[in-house]
């Protein structure tokens, strides 16, 4: 078993500032999830590197067909993926270097719409859940932004703030999950 594998019905959690961030693998055992399996042969290996928010680099040995979000979960990379790749959040936001960005399929309209809401948006921003590894992506280095926004947490927090005191709608758009 891989050292970072998650047992069925376990939810790995870690604390970032005062927010508790959990990534859910409850519906998938490591036997079921494609990204938790090692490559069957060297022909399908795709080596990539995740650059964490603190600048540290984590080299990862993935394989053709791996989803970037779930691969991050396998190796303990702090990529939340709150919507579990259903295109409903931006918590798997990453920056892709230009030389690899052009090798990805263009983002669908829904991904572009979500990215418009992401904090720290750049021209090379993509959602990790929409990146599937191919041999062309060998050597890719994806960088995590300084913060991501979980719309559910933001909405819940904003409702609580509104109960305490009225505020303008502009101030509702500034709730972020901040890194340590």
TrEMBL record:
Keywords: 2Fe-2S, Electron transport, Iron, Iron-sulfur, Lipid metabolism, Metal-binding, Mitochondrion, Steroid metabolism, Steroidogenesis, Transport
Location (main, coarse): mitochondrion
SUPFAM superfamilies: 2Fe-2S ferredoxin-like
PROSITE patterns documented for this protein: 2FE2S_FER_2, ADX
Domain 2Fe-2S ferredoxin-type: 46-148
Gene Ontology terms, MF aspect: 2 iron, 2 sulfur cluster binding; electron transfer activity; metal ion binding
GO CC annotations on file: mitochondrion
Cofactor(s), by name: [2Fe-2S] cluster
Function, as annotated: Required for ecdysteroidogenesis in the prothoracic gland which is necessary for larval to pupal transition.
Protein name: 2Fe-2S ferredoxin-type domain-containing protein
């Amino acid at each position: 078993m891989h050292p970072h594998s998650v047992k069925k019905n376990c939810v790995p959690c870690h604390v970032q500032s005062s927010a508790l961030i959990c990534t859910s693998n409850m519906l998938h055992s490591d036997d079921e999830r494609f990204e938790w399996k090692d490559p069957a042969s060297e022909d399908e290996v795709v080596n990539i590197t995740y650059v964490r928010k603190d600048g540290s680099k984590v080299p990862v040995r993935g394989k053709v067909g791996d989803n970037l979000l779930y691969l991050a979960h396998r190796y303990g990379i702090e990529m939340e993926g709150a919507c579990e790749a259903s295109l409903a959040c931006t918590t798997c936001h990453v920056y892709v270097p230009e030389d690899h960005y052009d090798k990805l399929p263009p983002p669908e309209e829904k991904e572009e719409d979500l990215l418009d809401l992401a904090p720290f948006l750049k021209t090379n921003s993509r959602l990790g859940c929409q990146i599937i590894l191919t041999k062309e992506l060998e050597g890719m280095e994806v960088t995590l932004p300084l913060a991501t926004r979980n719309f559910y947490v933001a909405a819940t927090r904003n409702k609580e703030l509104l109960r305490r005191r009225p505020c303008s709608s502009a101030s509702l758009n500034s709730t972020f999950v901040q890194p340590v």
